[in-house]
Design brief:
alpha/beta; Rossmann fold; 3 domains; five-stranded parallel beta sheet
């Protein structure tokens, strides 16, 4: 394990012991801090947030056991190795009961010191990774579904991007699945064993977002009672998803540019450079090209982010993926609600097909979840759906091919009847019919041509 730059605090009242530990830890690449007693050690912890502590048990003013109890009471969780004199194993055992990771007997052996320090830091890394990975698993990370040409192209670019460490810029309307793609890129990459940390750049104020990304030192601002690691530091070795990057305040854009350029940053209120090995994925529903040209987004940052660009298609442009997406969502919500819903009727699917889905897959998920909750049988029916702006189908007849054709032919026939009903109600006015169906008129004309619907096909013709 690489120890270069690791911050280690030595708490020992013996000056010669402190100096010896400093020399040996620096030889391992660590940065060292020292304290001569327990009270001074606690003050350094609050100020510097070390990654590891070497703690003597026998000290004036405040002994090692009291320091351990204080740290645990305050919820400060990092590995502590206690220093014990020869023949005081009982004290070391008591310290480990209080939360110490291991003990180091005097006199120190350089090789043993390196082994114990590396093991303690590796344990801390694993604990942090497990916590962050659990956060990743707890988030909504479904598979990329669909076989349309647009989605296949996006997946192809994402797989190629995953093999490198280049920055990825995900563009697309809200609800198109940008976070799902970010999870996929991380999962396909060599960084998959490390966490994917998600930061929403629009959910926090500039002040809080800066602290969230870079961390802060004790006293950096009102309420900063102790030092805190930021997301960049926590994601070391993994991936950071900067969601809604187009809304990042200008002041933070310059700091982010530095991270992308040299992977170094300082905590808020700090002066020591911190290096983070991270891969950045940025996502936005804004037109960053236009924003950069107008000066609303830093042009140099845009170029740094726009290394591998993946534009996700809106759901209205990949309607052929609706059946597989809808079926996946039905199965998902049926399992969550413990209902025996298996799928959608042909008419229900046809109604989904004629909607324009301004909210994209996220809107589809909301519609399907509600339909599963309301569904009284095995299949979702038209009346279970709550799709806005769609024509009332009371004038439409059930498809004549029901039960006599395959699924796709029934969906096609249901589409025809839904559109006929809208044309009937609008007296043949295609613009009004499109409004009833929640469609663009150009898309309605396309459907009329595809479904071979002519004037003779509706009462208003």
């Amino acid at each position: 394990m690489d120890l270069i730059g690791t911050r280690v605090l030595i708490v020992d009242d013996d000056p010669s012991s402190r100096r010896l530990l400093e020399v040996r830890l620096r030889a391992l690449g660590c940065e060292t801090m020292t304290a001569a007693d327990g009270q001074e050690g606690l003050a350094v912890v609050q100020r510097e947030a070390p990654a590891l502590m070497l703690l003597d048990l026998q000290m004036p003013r405040m002994g090692g056991l009291e320091v351990l109890r204080t740290l645990r009471r305050d919820g400060l969780d990092f590995p502590i190795i206690v220093i014990t004199a020869h023949g005081s194993i009982e004290a070391a055992v008591e310290a480990m009961k209080e939360g110490a990771y291991d003990f180091l007997p005097k006199p120190f052996d350089a090789g043993h010191l390196g082994i114990v320090v590396r093991k303690a830091l590796e344990r801390r890394r694993l604990v942090e990774s497990n916590r962050l990975l659990q956060d990743t698993l707890d988030s909504h990370t479904s598979e990329i579904l669909g076989d349309s040409q647009a989605i296949r192209q996006a997946v192809g670019v994402a797989r190629k991007a995953a093999a490198a460490n280049s920055t990825v810029l995900l563009l697309g309307e809200s609800g198109t699945g940008k976070e799902v793609f970010a999870h996929a890129v991380h999962r396909w990459s060599d960084r998959r064993e490390r966490p994917l940390v998600v930061v929403n750049c629009v959910a926090l104020s500039e002040h809080l977002l800066e602290s969230e990304l870079f961390g802060h030192e004790k006293g950096a601002f009102t309420g900063a009672h102790q030092a805190k690691k930021g997301k960049f530091e926590l994601a070391h070795g993994g991936t950071v998803l900067l969601d809604e990057i187009g809304d990042m305040p200008p002041g933070l854009q310059a700091k982010l540019l530095r991270v992308l350029q040299d992977h170094n940053f300082e905590r808020v209120g700090g002066t020591k450079p911190i290096r983070a090995d991270i891969r950045v994925i940025a996502a936005t529903n804004r037109d960053l090209d236009h924003a950069a040209k107008e000066g609303r987004f830093r042009e140099d940052l845009f170029y740094r982010l726009n290394v591998v660009r993946i534009t996700l298609p809106p759901l209205r442009d990949r309607k052929e993926d609706l059946p597989v997406l809808a079926q996946y969502l039905v199965a998902k919500f049926a399992a969550e609600t413990k209902k025996p819903v298996r799928g959608l009727s042909a008419q229900a699917m046809a109604r989904l097909q004629v909607h324009t889905w301004p909210g994209n897959v996220r809107e589809l998920a909301n519609v399907i979840e509600r339909a599963v909750v309301l569904c009284a049988g095995d299949d979702i029916q038209v009346e279970d759906l709550a799709v806005p702006n769609l024509v009332n189908l009371s004038t439409a007849q059930p498809p004549t091919s029901a039960g006599n054709g395959d699924f796709h032919s029934q969906v096609r026939e249901s589409k025809r009847q839904i559109i006929r009903a809208a044309l009937d109600r609008s007296g043949g006015n295609q613009t009004k019919a499109a409004e009833l169906l929640g469609l663009q008129r150009t898309y309605l004309v396309k459907l009329l041509r595809e479904l071979d619907i002519r004037n003779m096909d509706f009462a208003g013709g």
